[in-house]
Design a protein that fits this description.
569 residues, single chain, Nitrilase/N-carbamoyl-D-aminoacid amidohydrolase, nine-stranded mixed sheet
């Protein structure tokens, strides 16, 4: 009998793949979980919509996490700790992705729920490289290099088809305006690097050093906080704005997106509504009107809605204004040779076509379209990741309102207006104007924004529809992340939202005007035109590429060392 019990005990141990823990070890595991949960909570409440001074918590949020992983030896133990911390962080900040409200498509609910469990996996990139570094160097140096590994993860998460870089740490500090002014040199990812180094020196001062060394670490941590703040206050108060402005009118129609994309969205009624609201902005002096993302949810310029397009052009001609609007776009090709490689084929009509979530510039007195197709598509929401490589995924994964099949835009596009009314001091002029048209999710990508700004735009435009997510944290976070884009490139940002937050942000990141959530409203304001380029605009990839190169070097050294050990060289 004793032998049978022993055998059963061994089977159980094998199944769980764990050693039996002592009471002291169980207590330690519980304490570690509390510390990791604390780190996740501190990171989560550092992000919008939590107001200042909550962002200050980010300067010590990773200290409990560092305390735990510094004492762990195995990769699996380090990654378990990382996953728990990241899961709590994600739960607080991106709980809203599933759009947990009445009428939400079941697929969106499912993908939003899965994201809470899948997104923390990407945080295992820096913790895994940290483990490799601890074997190549030692744990002390591995932790010192940890911020570089984190930046590698943030950058890697921005450049794949499945990217969702919503939780870039630097973007979470948008409420701490003085501290983030250095973004014009290092960008949001550079601020992430700085924040994690602050955490490193706080941890080292508190737990890993004594005497003079402890004092030095505290001083370094303090300087890394204070010096950017001093620079930030100086920059805010001395920044030289261009004297040139253009008056812009933003239309926020506040239409339920589920109705708009369903059977209740009448294109003619929507056009009339947008034109009526546009007239109100013109009465307030607007020379450029901006409508939100997919303002009219049909292929308005595809040839089927000629009467509606002429109605819009007649309105623009009558008032002499320009219109920048989000619209679905379809382009037809009648031979395989001229069609893009990712085009779709219609057997019934015998043509190839591509569809884009697009922005278009419509001009008075002439009808040539300027248009841009969205390049960064929301994974699963707008495009199935890797569908070009694995086409069958597009047939398996779709959701109700038909947004999951857009093609990816091919290049950054700067819209050009040859002659528009501007103000320069007290004088009125007619001048040329360059602007971009970022679409919703694209505004969280610092390097994409820099690529647009590098083409010489006068200000940044974001058209969006945050109404999918209700009155949750998502729309507030999305708006605040645009503050970083303004500072990185020293450009004004104009956001035109369907039901989210429309606003004007100046080149130092201050919100000049904004609308309220879920209100039908217009916003009219003078937008500063700033044509100069920042260091970040010109050299946005220096920090992430350098960090990634170092991380790859560490990975290479680890596997070289492992190979030598295996081959006994």
């Amino acid at each position: 009998m004793d032998k049978e019990k022993e055998t059963e005990k061994l089977k159980l141990k094998f199944w769980k793949n764990k050693d039996v823990l002592t009471p002291e070890q169980r207590k330690q595991r519980k304490n570690d979980r509390l510390l990791l949960t604390a780190s996740g909570i501190l990171l989560g409440i550092s992000f919008p919509p939590f107001p200042f001074p909550f962002p200050l918590l980010m300067f010590a949020a990773l200290v409990p996490y560092f305390y735990v992983i510094d004492r762990r030896e195995k990769l699996i133990d380090i990654n378990r700790a990382t996953y728990l911390m990241a899961f709590v962080f994600c739960l607080i900040t991106i709980y809203w992705v599933g759009s947990w409200q009445k009428g939400t498509d079941p697929f969106l609910l499912l993908s939003g729920g899965l994201l809470l469990f899948i997104n923390p996996i990407f945080f295992l990139i820096p913790s895994t490289i940290y483990f490799f570094a601890s074997k190549v160097f030692n744990k002390k140096w591995a932790l010192f290099f940890f911020p570089l590994f984190w930046v590698t993860y943030e950058y890697a998460y921005m450049i794949t088809d499945a990217s969702f870089p919503w939780l870039t740490l630097g973007s979470g500090l948008s409420h701490f305006l003085a501290f983030i002014q250095i973004a014009e040199f290092i960008g949001a990812v550079g601020i992430s690097l700085l924040v994690i180094y602050i955490n490193y020196f706080v941890f080292t001062a508190a737990f890993k050093s004594n005497g003079k060394r402890k004092t030095i670490n505290w001083v370094i941590a303090l300087l890394l906080i204070v010096l950017p703040i001093i620079f930030g206050y100086y920059r805010i108060n001395t920044f030289k704005f261009s004297g040139k402005k253009v008056r812009v009118g933003v239309v926020q129609p506040n239409i339920d997106p589920w109705d708009k994309w369903g059977t209740e969205g009448d294109p003619a009624e929507l056009v009339d509504l947008h034109l009526r609201m546009s007239k109100q902005t013109i009465d307030s002096g607007a020379a450029l009107i901006i409508w939100p993302e997919t303002a009219i949810p049909v292929y308005l310029m595809g040839g089927t809605y000629y009467g509606l397009t002429q109605k819009i052009y007649s309105f623009l001609n009558e008032h002499g204004v320009y219109l920048l609007t989000g619209l679905p776009d379809i382009r037809f090709y009648y031979s395989k040779e001229e069609a893009p490689s990712d085009s779709k084929y219609s057997k019934e009509a015998n043509y190839y076509y591509v569809t884009y979530n697009a922005v278009m510039l419509l001009s008075p007195y002439s009808q040539p379209l300027q248009r841009y197709g969205k390049m960064k598509l929301v994974p699963f929401g707008e495009r199935v990741p890797f569908v070009d490589e694995l086409p069958f995924l597009g047939d398996w994964i779709k959701w109700g309102v038909g947004l999951s099949g857009w093609n990816k835009g091919k290049d950054t596009t700067t819209f050009f207006i040859p002659k528009i009314k501007t103000e320069d001091g007290n004088s009125i002029k007619y001048d040329s104007l360059r602007l971009n048209g970022l679409i919703c999710y694209e505004s969280i990508y610092p390097f994409l924004n820099a690529a647009f700004a590098n083409k010489g735009e006068d200000f940044i435009t974001v058209v969006t529809n945050d109404s999918w997510y209700g009155n949750s944290s998502g729309p507030y976070q999305h708006k605040e992340f645009s503050v970083l884009r303004a500072i990185e490139n020293r450009k004004s940002v104009i956001r035109a939202a369907n039901g989210g937050i429309s606003c004007i942000i100046d080149p130092v990141g201050r919100t000049v005007k904004q609308t309220k959530m879920f209100t039908r409203d217009i916003l009219v304001g003078d937008v500063i035109l700033q044509r100069s380029k920042t260091f970040f605009t010109r050299h946005s990839l220096i920090i992430p590429v350098s960090a990634s190169a170092f991380s790859i070097w560490v990975i290479g050294l680890f596997f070289l060392k492992w190979l030598k050990k295996k081959l006994k060289i």
